Amino acid sequence: xxxxxRPSPAGRxxxxxxxxxxxxxxxxxxxxxxxxxRAREELGGVAAVRLGPRPTVLVTDPSAxxxxxxxxxxxxxxxSHRARLxxxxxxxxxxxDAWQRQxxxxxxxxxxxxxxxxxxxxxxxxxxxAARWDAYARTGEVxxxxxxxxxxxxxxxxxxxxxHPLDTGTExxxxxxxxxxxxxxxxxxxxxxxxxxxxxxxxxxDAVAALAIDAARDGxxxxxxxxxxxxxxxAADTRPEYTDDLIRDELVTLLVAGHETTAGTLTWxxxxxxxxxxxxxxxxxxxxxxxxxxxxxxxxxxHETLRFYPSAWILPRSAARDDLLAGYAVEAGTDVLVCPYLxxxxxxxxxxxxxxxxxxxxxxxxxxxxxxxxxxxxxxxRACLGLRFAMVESTxxxxxxxxxxxPRFRSVPTGAAYGITVRPDGPTPATLTG
Length: 434
Known about the structure:
By secondary structure, the protein is α+β, with helices and mostly antiparallel strands. The protein has one domain: CATH 1.10.630.10. 52% of the residues lie in helices and 12% in strands. It is built from 16 helices and 14 strands. The strands form 5 sheets. The protein has a 5-stranded mixed sheet with strand order 3-4-10-7-5. Strands 6-14-11 form a 3-stranded antiparallel sheet. It has a two-stranded antiparallel ribbon with strand order 1-2. Helix 6 packs antiparallel against helix 7 and helix 12 packs across helix 14. The protein is globular.
């Protein structure tokens, strides 16, 4: 049984999930993704779910996804970002003209020729990670794969921001970033109380950011040369909006976006390879080390992991004015949630979607052609700036680790935790074999 959201004269009513089902879900204490999966299964790719006084519109149909994110971004806008208490007015949270200026400054550093300046730093971080793994293999030490992936990704983005490899003290203090990200879904709705709950962690992050800004301003470039932080400081010479507060916010934004998502993807990838060892063997057999064939196969592993666990499992928007979405009426003020996680698992789009099959991304014609069917980094003007950076970073690390080592997990997480990202819901202890 379904009910219907209040119609607008301009279009059809959006089918709404029976409130009784929502009530049963609440009683079970189920995950939000379970409720959304039920709505998609029963009602299709545009469905309403009443989580509060007004229905929220869930969007998983690829044409509707493209409409919201790429074709009508002026009608479906971002409101306050869930991580704003952490990233402030950084580019992820900014809107309007401020967002356009901030994105324009950074965009060229992550595309085309701009990417070349980071490749040596990525390789340096990968060599450091590979050396640690060699040591784990020699000693038989038990280590946490997730912690290792976070350490590598943090080292990579720190080198890119500052020109310096990650040191132990900075790594220890920046553990506060992961702590705040993990806490965000359960923080109080009131901003003052939320900030108070993570005040110590925010103070640690602020202190690291202040030291990095002062060092870049006083000492110039690091051993790897100038980084993104120097780009921000140079902008401050001609753009008054780039105050120390905004530079701090951009620095923390790039730290969060530049390592949390990549670390999660690489952790999931190792867990998926543990269950699908033949996929690892096929990727390594695709070509010689460093060859385009092997690189393409390793990218296939990453893309298929991102299909299962996209960097942002849900993308919230708000309808700025009335609109027609796939023939349905959407009223101004409606909360709209695009859900890549469910789009990527739609059996109408993907053959056998629950099977780990990297060949979808290496064999022509295997993946859906519709641009709204695969969007692990979003699509449209607010798509993630770091898409290419993340792909290069992940592929380079796999080139170093996969041929030499296979993690043997002592235990594996039983499920996923759905916060800002989708991450394993437990530790990932392992030893290494050659």
